[in-house]
Design brief:
Length: 247
Amino acid sequence: MRTDSEKAALDNSGLHAREPHSAGLSSRLNWLRAAVLGANDGIVSVSGIVVGVAAATTETGPVVTAGIAGLAAGAVAMALGEYVSVSSQRDSEQALLAKERRELLESPEEELAELAAIYRNKGLSPATAQTVAEELTAHDAFAAHVDAELGIDPDELTNPRHAALASAVAFTMGALLPLLAVMLTPASVRIPVTFGAVLLALALTGNLSAYLSGAGHARTVARIVIGGALAMAVTYGIGHLAGVAGI
């Protein structure tokens, strides 16, 4: 039998040391998942634009101009949307944290009883729940309450500026692929090459998205690839009709 100190040493330096115990792991995975989704948005949005314009004209200038405009507009829109969304979430979290601090100052006994009730509802016996609540409160009452009641880590609040920048960068990286495919290929094969490059990229990002979310790979990849193909097919059809009509 190992002593408690030996078990602790194993946790810190043995097999358990390789397990992800970081409190920020979930946050980092969410950031990575958001980056993948942003890249997908960039790929699909700009590929739809350039394919649609390429279907209407064989001239490179209008196609590239439309693609660059779509990239810039999409990146700005993604950044603004993410900034507003994360700012609202952060404001709500900060309001909840301030409320919890005030309640701990004004009614500490009621807050202790509330914390004990939370642990009873999780399956602990009343005596154990009371002991846990008292020990956690003695160690750091605020941290114990915001974790148990709100599920918020005060040190891990998302930064709106970082979120906006990450969203814009992810969108831009995804959008560059169809734009470069259109710019670097002859007009005669521009559309099929762009279609192929985009569908391959969507399959790769779909696999990564499925891996991060733990979802089924085949279903996730099929959903993303089919959606991207439909988007390009629709814009191609519209662009072709516009070109035939001389618009």
